[in-house]
Write a structure and sequence with these properties.
mainly alpha, elongated, 10 helices, 272 residues, 79% helix
């Protein structure tokens, strides 16, 4: 089951709370109502949607919701568990032969790992396995880039449509110069669309695009480690050597956490 990434909704909520606190700090909740304008919302959101319709094909837009949803979830794979999986596969391959790994695939959830092990079981050369699996990584990156581009473009269009709304409001305001008392309120309403567009761009769309880019980089990193593990298992590397090789990819923080867990396990065993 996938884990939710709570930092995304927390960050968005915190950003909106800070904006509302800034608005209400001087004039209370009455000031908040001045920042709500339905026509400005229609201009910004409707303009963004219209621009995306022009910029992308329908099949690309259909994937936009799925891509946006990914910003609220964490990647399933954890490097220590992945290393443990390949150590287990390596031990069984050395003990029972590479063909025995086919029976272990039922316990493997990751399709990329399954594909690599099946290629190894079929006796494909390591260089060919590397080429096939790297080609899949490249294809995945291209899919992610195309999906992320929708979010990035929305972040680019939002401030522009905010400015369009502001210019529209200014034109309407200038057509009513006979009433000086209305200039201030009309100017405030005209500027609200720029605020909406800027907030959507810098609090929602662009940060989400950055998070999705980071998630893609993490996924590519994990898949490259999987390739190393598959080739190591196929070549019959000693499990300890393979563990040392794959552990080189662990960050210092993860290694320290693993060492602490090992020490706690030893202490529990000694107490027992």
């Amino acid at each position: 089951m996938r884990k939710r990434d709570l930092l995304t909704p927390i960050g968005i909520t915190l950003g909106f709370i800070m904006i509302m606190l800034a608005i209400t700090s001087k004039e209370g909740t009455d000031g908040l109502a001045r920042f709500i304008d339905i026509s400005s919302i229609f201009i910004v959101l409707g303009g963004i949607v219209a621009s995306l319709f022009i910029a992308f094909k329908m099949d690309q837009l259909k994937t936009g919701g799925k891509v946006l949803k990914e910003a609220f979830y964490k990647n399933n794979q954890e490097l220590p568990q992945l290393i443990a999986l390949f150590i287990m596969l390596s031990e069984r391959a050395r003990r029972e032969g590479i063909l025995a790994l086919e029976n272990e695939l039922e316990n493997v959830d990751d399709d990329f790992v399954k594909k690599g092990i099946l290629l190894a079981v079929d006796g494909i050369e390591p260089e060919v396995i590397n080429d096939i699996m790297n080609a899949e990584i490249t294809a995945m990156e291209e899919r992610h880039i195309k999906g992320r581009m929708i979010i990035e473009k929305a972040g680019e269009y939002a401030p522009a449509w905010g400015m369009i709304g502001t210019l529209t409001g200014l034109i309407l305001m200038l057509n009513n110069l006979t009433d000086p008392a209305s200039l201030g309120p009309n100017m405030a309403v005209a500027l609200i669309t720029t605020l909406y567009g800027t907030v959507l761009a810098n609090l929602v769309f662009l940060p989400m695009a950055s998070k999705l880019e980071n998630k893609t980089e993490d996924e590519v990193f994990m898949k490259e480690i999987i390739i190393e593990g598959v080739i190591g298992v196929q070549s019959g590397q000693n499990p300890r050597i393979l563990e040392e090789k794959l552990s080189a990819f662990l960050s210092d923080e993860v290694e320290e956490a693993e060492e602490d867990d090992d020490l706690l396990s030893e202490e529990d065993a000694n107490e027992a």
